[in-house]
Design the sequence.
């Protein structure tokens, strides 16, 4: 290996151990404080949690129960049960009119497992992954784990806090390998439409890079039917999950759709890193695409939609600006600059004074996080109303 | 960061991408061929699989079923449910008379998850981890994933294929950080007794290193009661799992016992890498220490013991030398040099000719793997007898 400048610049970019560069979510401190308050008898309203208040749909639980009682408790193949990979491929056809080879669908321990696996397989030390700021904080940490870099690109409300082809062209460097976007996004709920996805895929392809699209909130769409990047870019990499729309957070099952040529490498890495995704989760997921399960999910989507509509009226009335109307996921990301320039302190005080827990914008990036907040509508409407009343009273007294 | 020699030597040790340095298990090719033969109607006897032929004990399945039906399908804390961490700590007291702080017990997605997490947290690029050859191949791959090195140390039957204090002193270098041993070991089943563990821990402590002990086969012991390194070295790191003794392979739940000071860092990394270990598995595991479950496990251990006794007689009669009598796990590792110097070819021919699938020694290291074989006794005694009869006939005709 050469001792030239490229090598040096690749390896001298990290002065610290990876574990020093990976920060805990600030919301975890909020959550711990919320739990301490609850233990003291305070009625805490949780608007900080990225997990809906619905258990897994019953048909899926019963599918798992039947499999477990039939003794299906052993390992599956490293990339998951072939029959489930086929069902997911079929779902792309039924729902999105996109045909994909089932062998391109790989199952992982959560979408976290998919990002871990893909980062290990595709990123070399020193390489870069472009990400939007604001965005989900773990994504850049996966790059850092493998001695690569998540490079945060400041975005604005003008592009709905999403990357644009122009930003990709502007920030792409010789050692950039991947651009990662999320649709619907966290914390904004912003959905990328197909023309935008196509333009992004083109911009990345021109650079010879890889386009990874986080679609883990797919299905939780409020204005238009959900879509997938695979409809416009067959070479894109999709990250998805049974956690959110399918209501399986605790089971830890995600999937990825990858180029067929990558599968042997991903399989051997998955054998080593995970052995296999959890078997009970796979049996539950086999029932996820049944009409009965999908009907439950659609009912839940309507409930979430009502909560969203309420917050989109209530939050601006309280003086929180909504720079981007969320058309997916279950979050409203607001500009609180009228009230604070220290979002963590604001969240801490709000919790201490009112028992309402929300997430500070600093968890989602370096740029404007200090005056943004994220409200999750993962709690019933009456509780949301109660929370807004408490906040209104609190703001009036400040 | 300096451009000095140390930095260069750390970073120039890998010329290739990590995915090129991580090999698939050769046994996977055997397994694929076995499945192809089965599809053609051949009666394949599986002695290659590291997974017992017992499903999860019923009380544990029913514990998971009750939790799932009660809607307990959401995320747990990143390091697992506190009540389960306490139960595991209590198990160390009840079974091994070792007191540990429950906060030192962290739950992970399988023991694979524990090794992934610890490797990410503790290994810097270029650092070394010492491992015995032969040994479980994934262990060195975890180091490679994070740009560190698994350094295989050739061991012999004289030390029961385990590392010794002398080997540690001899091979420790300035950039060595960890020595990893397994007890019971894979592929040999060799158990380290407490004096040996204490001497190893001392040898590593003298170097200022970390001593990691893989105890995932703990409980599957045939000569003496199982023990833990924590009885003689409170600063050792333990890796363990619900997969083997507790019969939960497919659920993906492991644990580690770590120094208390590491827990905050491991927690933030686990939040990022996994979010949390699987919830259904944790509810099943809550019932693992009940008397009813433990009685089932002990019955199974006796069944495995009978199979082991049979193989320890039958394999030498067939001309396979057993250099180390396995006192734990469910493998017999044999020297087949009387018959082959190409263990993979031998396994392929044996499978093709007789339908008996075993694992070639080359999966477990570089040294003497070409003339060793591993037989797993994860299949019922009559099938083991059938397999031995087929092998006897085949060897007679060669």
Sequence:
């Amino acid at each position: 290996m050469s001792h030239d400048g490229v090598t040096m610049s690749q390896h001298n970019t990290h002065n610290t151990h990876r574990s020093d560069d990976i920060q805990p979510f600030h919301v975890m401190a909020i959550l711990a404080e919320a739990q301490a308050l609850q233990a003291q008898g305070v009625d805490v309203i949780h608007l900080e949690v990225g997990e809906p208040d619905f258990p897994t749909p019953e048909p899926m639980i019963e599918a798992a129960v039947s499999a477990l009682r039939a003794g299906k408790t052993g390992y599956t193949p490293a990339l998951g049960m072939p029959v489930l990979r086929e069902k997911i491929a079929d779902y792309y056809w039924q729902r999105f009119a996109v045909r994909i080879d089932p062998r391109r669908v790989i199952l992982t321990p959560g979408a976290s497992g998919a990002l871990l696996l893909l980062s290990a397989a595709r990123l070399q030390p020193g390489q870069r992954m472009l990400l939007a700021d604001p965005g989900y904080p773990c994504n850049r940490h996966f790059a850092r784990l493998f001695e690569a870099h998540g490079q945060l690109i400041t975005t604005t409300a003008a592009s709905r806090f999403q990357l644009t082809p122009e930003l990709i062209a502007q920030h792409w460097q010789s050692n950039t390998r991947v651009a990662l976007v999320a649709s619907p996004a966290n914390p904004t709920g912003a959905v990328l439409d197909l023309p935008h996805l196509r333009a992004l895929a083109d911009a990345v392809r021109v650079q010879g890079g890889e386009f990874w699209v986080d679609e883990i909130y797919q299905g939780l769409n409020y204005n238009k039917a959900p879509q997938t990047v695979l409809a416009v870019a067959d070479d894109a990499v999709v990250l998805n999950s049974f956690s959110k729309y399918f209501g399986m957070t605790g089971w830890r099952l995600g999937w990825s759709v990858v180029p067929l040529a990558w599968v042997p490498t991903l399989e051997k890495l998955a054998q080593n890193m995970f052995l296999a995704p959890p078997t009970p989760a796979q049996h539950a997921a086999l029932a996820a695409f049944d009409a009965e399960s999908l009907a439950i999910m659609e009912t839940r989507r309507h409930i979430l939609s009502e909560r969203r509509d309420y917050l989109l009226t209530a939050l601006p009335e309280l003086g929180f600006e909504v720079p981007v109307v969320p058309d997916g996921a279950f979050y409203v990301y607001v500009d609180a600059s009228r009230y604070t320039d220290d979002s963590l302190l604001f969240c801490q005080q709000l919790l201490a004074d009112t028992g309402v827990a929300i997430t500070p914008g600093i968890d989602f990036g370096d740029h404007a996080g200090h005056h943004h907040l994220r409200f999750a509508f993962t709690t019933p409407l009456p509780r949301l109303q109660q929370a807004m009343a408490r906040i209104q009273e609190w703001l009036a007294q400040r």
